[in-house]
User: Which sequence fits this backbone?
């Protein structure tokens, strides 16, 4: 048996834990010290003693964690020390303030990517590869069928759809996660076509984005107790949770679309029961995942969140030392449960499994 | 190809029938008659021939993309549609948008028909060259054409409406004109004839089949309440065969399945016998497979499974004609002396039918040697609903599915109009079975574990008896999918072996001995009635229960 270096990060019941530094990365339970990659509900939970996040994401995290949370923010790339372990946060390109966590201790460097994308996004800093010994990467879209089209082409598709609806007097409703995707869409479309209207949940984050210095086109809020909104010209951006409720009735005749990486697959789009699916994702596509792994130069890759088994096996086929990292999340994220590609607005992560047999299984790192 | 691809995706996305109709009309108006003719065939479900096997296609795609075979399979299991999976995996064609496009007809001729009988190397050459000039969405449509699997989510009625609008004729006239389209290829001239303002009717076409609806409540009291006095109704056995029309016009015979395919080749003895009918006769009835029960026994019905071995063939070899003899049992006369009898009441049509087809069918005397192959469907006589219910109870032992009830005054309608024709099927057999394996579904259920293999107890072991798909609500399937993922014991490719926790109430039409399932029995038409959340696997049914049913009904 070869001698192994101690793990800088390991999976515990409360999440990814750095024993040397006594802190967790994106814990899924209340813990004393949490380093947060980004403010999505499956990565940032309220109730922790102290949070550390990247400076551009502080306002957004505050919106999510509440006014009383203790949040420390550091500039991207600036090292900080937690119990003698050096920690720095680096742009992940996922949403505003999203970060990869770089951990250095006794000459060993680990990076946990959190969620990330390589595509350009006007609403957040672009992904920067970070050299490391061990990389923990997400794999939400870790199948080669997921390859994102050029965002400019998708923008043109969305604009054409909106314009056609406007000309037919139908309101265009696009369902997207309230944090990140919604703002990115607002920045992507052509505001000359008509007014952009946002659901309250989206609006809260729009304000947080603006307060953080992100430029967004004019966006109207839906007035409280409104009975009828717009005249069929607007583009409405709303979280998927409005489906099935009465809120959509405010807009009269609508055309429904979903913006998500899952919309690549026709069967998933049809199951969502919407007319239009636009492929806009805040995660890396398959080539993006491979590029990020390569750019890290890691000698060992642990894969989590999504098609972990598949991506790990493919990396092994290519000669890398790679293994799936079992977490609280199941191997594949069934798109139905996911709603959007990130989580829903509720507290449950997509496809959370009941505790039980999964828990012991999750408590070990693969050998 | 560009136009047709656009149409395919428009039809796929449009939720409103009006939008689908508009897309169809615009398409037919925009393309050449040759392309339109091809499209009509494809949209109406004309039989497509597979030019390349899906196994070869996967292999070439793996080699083209440099991906390992297992990853292509994993991707397929996730996407649930091979044509789409491959289209998504293949590298983007650099010049796909700029490349000039062949029309649908030319595309089919040069890249599909031309390679059907070619050497493998030649096939591959054409396939990879075509990949390089098609955009991903075009590839999906083309793959489906290439492998003979293109289905479009649009009804024939809607295609007929669109063409009727273009031709300026009644939709019913167009439906009739389209009847034969599935039977053979349509060319540009054929398409022009479809659109002709007034054609001399192509007199080989069958009539649109009139369909029966299932009774809402199968118990006799409810049927009596729903249908009124029994005297107003004609009852017949509901045969377990294949619905068909014999069209005897001019100097030949055409035999049409309900899927509107020409099946002359599969049933030459029926066609030969029908040639003796007077010209201008159309019979609606059922093709049945009959066999001899034991070396000296009488004839017995073999059921749909046996018949389908014949029905799929373009020509039936001699051996199968003797192994699976077929008969045609007529239950309606739709045309007589060249006159459309559909507006006449059933009572009248039946009287004329008795003269045209004098021999009544009974399994005991039927047979290719001793009684001809053309029969009339016998009536099931009873003077009350209760008495009729007693006759209905004989169904399973007779090898029929129940009773057909037709109002004596009914006209021969179109489609499935409720009110005059009813199916009063016998209730299915049922057993509670345990979910043992699960597999991801296709299409709308891609990536969701929705196909289940179920088993019952044989002593202290669970043995598989059936694979079942339907019967659960989408929300239940999503819930079961999560349970499947968390109770998986082993994975074999796309199949997951699960810890037995889920019990399903399984309905089926019959039991037969089988070598395919470990249990030694197979159930016919299994489907899930409901998820028994109230039962544990220990409470599920046993193999002994099924063997008892087998002994009782066969």
Assistant:
């Amino acid at each position: 048996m070869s001698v192994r270096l101690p793990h800088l990060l390991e999976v515990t019941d409360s999440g990814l834990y750095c024993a040397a530094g006594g802190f967790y990365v994106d814990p899924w339970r209340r813990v004393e010290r949490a380093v947060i990659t980004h403010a999505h509900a499956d990565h940032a939970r309220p109730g922790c003693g102290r949070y550390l996040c990247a400076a551009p994401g502080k306002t957004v995290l505050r919106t999510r964690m509440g006014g009383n949370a203790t949040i420390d923010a550091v500039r991207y790339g600036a090292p900080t020390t937690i119990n003698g372990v050096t920690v720095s946060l680096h742009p992940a390109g996922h949403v505003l303030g999203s970060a990869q966590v770089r951990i250095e201790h006794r000459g060993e460097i680990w990076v946990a990517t959190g969620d990330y994308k390589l595509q350009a996004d006007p609403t957040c800093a672009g992904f920067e590869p970070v050299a490391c010994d061990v990389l923990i990467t997400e794999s939400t879209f870790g199948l080669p069928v997921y390859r994102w089209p050029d965002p400019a082409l998708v923008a043109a598709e969305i604009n054409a759809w909106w314009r056609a609806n406007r000309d037919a007097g139908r309101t265009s409703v696009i369902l997207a996660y309230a944090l990140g995707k919604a703002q990115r869409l607002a920045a992507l479309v052509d505001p000359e076509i008509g007014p952009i209207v946002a659901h309250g949940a989206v609006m809260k984050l729009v304000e947080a984005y603006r307060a953080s210095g992100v430029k967004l086109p004019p966006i109207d809020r839906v007035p409280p107790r409104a009975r009828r909104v717009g005249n069929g010209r607007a583009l409405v951006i709303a979280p998927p949770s409005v489906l099935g409720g009465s809120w959509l009735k405010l807009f009269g005749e609508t055309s429904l679309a979903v913006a998500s990486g899952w919309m690549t697959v026709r069967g998933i789009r049809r199951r969502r029961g919407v007319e239009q699916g636009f492929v806009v994702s805040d995660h890396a596509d398959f080539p993006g995942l491979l590029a990020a792994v390569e750019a890290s130069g890691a000698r060992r890759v642990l894969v989590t969140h999504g098609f972990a088994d598949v991506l790990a096996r493919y990396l092994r086929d290519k000669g890398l030392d790679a293994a799936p990292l079992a977490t609280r999340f199941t191997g594949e994220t069934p798109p139905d449960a996911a709603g959007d590609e990130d989580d829903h607005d509720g507290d449950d992560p997509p496809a959370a499994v009941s505790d039980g047999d999964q828990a012991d299984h999750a408590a070990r790192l693969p050998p | 190809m560009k136009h047709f691809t656009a149409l395919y995706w428009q039809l796929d996305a449009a939720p409103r029938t009006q939008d689908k109709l508009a897309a169809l009309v615009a398409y037919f108006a925009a393309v050449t008659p040759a392309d339109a003719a091809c499209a009509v065939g494809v949209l109406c479900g004309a039989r497509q021939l597979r030019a390349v096997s899906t196994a070869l296609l996967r292999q070439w795609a793996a080699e083209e993309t440099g991906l390992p075979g297992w990853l292509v399979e994993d991707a397929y299991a996730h996407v649930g549609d091979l044509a789409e999976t491959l289209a998504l995996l293949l590298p983007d064609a650099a010049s796909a948008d700029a490349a000039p496009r062949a029309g649908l007809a030319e595309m089919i001729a040069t890249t599909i028909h031309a390679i059907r009988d070619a050497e493998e190397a030649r096939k591959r050459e054409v396939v990879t060259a075509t990949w390089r000039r098609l955009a991903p969405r075009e590839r999906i449509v083309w793959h489906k054409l290439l492998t003979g699997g293109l289905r479009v989510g649009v009804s024939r009625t809607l295609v007929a409406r669109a063409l009727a609008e273009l031709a300026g004729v009644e939709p019913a006239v167009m439906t009739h004109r389209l009847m034969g389209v599935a039977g053979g290829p349509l060319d540009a001239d054929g398409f022009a004839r479809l659109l002709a303002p007034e054609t001399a009717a192509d007199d080989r076409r069958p009539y649109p089949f009139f369909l029966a609806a299932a009774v809402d409540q199968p118990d006799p009291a409810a049927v009596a309440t729903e249908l009124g006095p029994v005297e107003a109704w004609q009852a017949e056995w509901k045969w377990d065969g294949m619905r068909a029309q014999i069209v005897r016009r001019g100097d030949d015979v055409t035999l049409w399945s309900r899927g509107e395919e020409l099946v002359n080749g599969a049933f030459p003895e029926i066609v030969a016998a029908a040639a003796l009918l007077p010209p201008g006769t159309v019979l609606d009835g059922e093709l049945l497979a009959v066999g001899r029960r034991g070396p000296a026994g009488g004839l017995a019905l073999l059921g749909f499974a046996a018949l389908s071995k014949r029905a799929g063939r373009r020509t039936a070899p001699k051996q199968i004609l003797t192994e699976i003899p077929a008969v045609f049992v007529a239950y309606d006369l739709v045309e007589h002396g060249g006159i459309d009898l559909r507006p006449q009441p059933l009572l009248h049509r039946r009287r004329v039918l008795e003269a045209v087809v004098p021999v009544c069918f009974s399994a005991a005397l039927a047979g290719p040697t001793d009684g001809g192959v053309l029969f009339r469907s016998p009536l099931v006589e009873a003077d009350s609903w209760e008495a009729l219910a007693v006759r209905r109870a004989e169904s399973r032992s007779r090898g029929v599915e129940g009773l057909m009830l037709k109002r004596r005054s009914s006209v021969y309608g179109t489609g499935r109009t409720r009110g005059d024709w009813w199916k009063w099927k016998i209730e299915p057999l049922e057993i509670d079975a345990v979910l043992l394996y699960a597999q991801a579904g296709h299409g709308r259920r891609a990536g969701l574990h929705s196909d289940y293999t179920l088993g019952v107890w044989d002593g202290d072991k669970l043995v598989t008896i059936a694979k079942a798909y339907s019967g659960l609500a989408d929300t239940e399937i999503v819930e079961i999918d999560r349970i499947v993922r968390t109770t998986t014991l082993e994975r074999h490719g796309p199949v997951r072996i699960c810890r037995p926790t889920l019990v399903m109430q399984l309905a089926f039409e019959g039991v037969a001995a089988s070598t395919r399932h470990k249990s030694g029995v197979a159930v016919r038409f299994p489907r899930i009635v409901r998820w028994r959340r109230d039962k544990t696997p220990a409470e599920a049914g046993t193999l002994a229960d099924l063997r008892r049913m087998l002994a009782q009904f066969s």
